[in-house]
Each structure stands twice: as structure tokens, then as C-alpha cells.
Amino acid sequence: MTTPLLSIVIPARDEAGNLPTLLDEIDAALPDTPFEVLVVDDASQDDTWAMLTRRAEQDSRLRPLHHAHSAEQSTSVWQAAHAARGTWLATLDGDGQNDPADLPALLARARQGDVTLVAGQRVNRRDDWLKRLSSRVANRVRAALLKDATPDTGCGIKVIERRAFLTLPYFDHMHRFLPALIQMQGGRCVSVPVNHRPRGTGHSHYGLNNRLWAGLLDMAGVMWLRKRCRLPAPVDQAQDILGLGEGTATASAETDTLPQEGSPR
Q1: Which of 36-40, 166-170, 248-252 bottoms out in mean pLDDT, i.e. has the lowest?
Q2: What pLDDT does 85 receive?
Q3: Of 194, 4, 171, nearest to 89 (Cα)?
Q4: pLDDT digit string (tens) for 200-226?
Q5: Burial annotation 35-50 (CB, 10 A radius, 16+ → b, else e)
Q6: Cα–Cα 20 to 30 A to 250, which of 16, 86, 125, 223?
């Protein structure tokens, strides 16, 4: 298989009723883009894993991963990102509420070269009132404390540079704070309006308790990380400081391999 430009990461738990349509929509949305799809079955109790393995036998772009015991969404995304091969990562929720038709626009914006992460912003939420309320409160509290200039960080559809994602600190629920984590390493994030749809089948695994109250502790941790972070921190090599010009071929190769965490985009 040709190395994909885009690796689409989908954490899923008990989504056998939604994933086949979602995967078909991804195919239709990206006819000219080399991509792969990594679906992480997070210990589903339904037919999710059996469906994924059957489909993967017919489509080499689909790479299913499986948890015997639930590790939850952030761990699923983190593991899939490390297994991915694309230059860019796209995240989608497995419930079908994110529209794959938005992926080409998000990827095109990301590839302009001036941003590290493009986040979707749901302009017409299709959730019940409690979910909308808890999300609105969480977004306002997060924006006030972290100042990440991202109006809807809870939106599941995002496109992020894979190399940048792999430098981020891992912790449970990190997926809720990707813009703030990217920004504290010198990256730039933008938000674009995206479509939002009703859930197809099944029910959400999130509610007020695990969205707001658990998130407050996580937010305190992110604030601590931001305070302690010293990136970006540009590094000069000896040959540059001493004015050695182009240097030797070996020195040039070493320059190319220096880590570039925090380089603004």
C-alpha cells in the first residue's frame, strides 16, 4: 500500500450500527486522497469487532485495532496515532455525528502550511438539551481558564499534523485539550464550521458527570503543564554559532535530524 497522506482515527465502542455507513461516507468523501482508517474497538459488547474484521478483509485501507478491556477515547486515539502512517491525522467520532464530507476542507486548510491543527466547530448542534448544555458550560470554563481560542474543542472532527501530535504529553482525556496542548508547544490552531448530525443508533457514553466534573481536574493539570512548558525553544548548533557556513555533509545531516518540537506553524 502507498504511504497515505491522511490517517483517519476513529475510537468506537458499541458502534456496529453506525460504522458501516460512516466508512462508506469516508470512501465517498476522499476519492482522490490516499488515506487509511484506523478504527479502535474499545471493548465493544456488540458486533463491532466482527464487522470490522470482515470489512478489513476486503479493504486494505481499513486497519482495525481492538481493546479486550475498555481504555476509553484518549488512549484509543493515542494508540492509533502511533500506529498510523499518514502525514496528517484526522479524528472522527464513531457515532456518525461528524460528517466525513467535511474532511477535504479541513485537510486543505491544514495543508496551507500555517497551522498545526484544524478543529471543527459545530454550528448547528444535533444533540439533546443536556448534552448541549454540558458542552456549552465546559467550553466556556475551558476557554476562560486555558485561553485556547477554540470555541468547540469537544467537536470530534479535527485534522492535526501527526508529527506534532506524537510530541504531546499523554494522559486520559487529552483529546479534549488538543488545541491548548498544541499551542503550548508553539503550534497554531484554527477552527472552521462543520456539519453536525443526529446519532444514528445506540447511545452516548458521555454525560454531565464525565464531561464537566471530571474535566475540571484535567483542566487543572493542563494549566499546570502550560505553566511548566518551555517550548518552543530554538536550538543553535556549533557550526552556526561559529559561522562555519554550510559545514560538512555530516554536520548538515545532523541539522536535519534535530527535533523541532514547538516550531510555529
Answers
A1: 248-252
A2: 97
A3: 4
A4: 787 665 555 555 556 777 888 888 888
A5: bbbbbbbbbbeeebbe
A6: 86
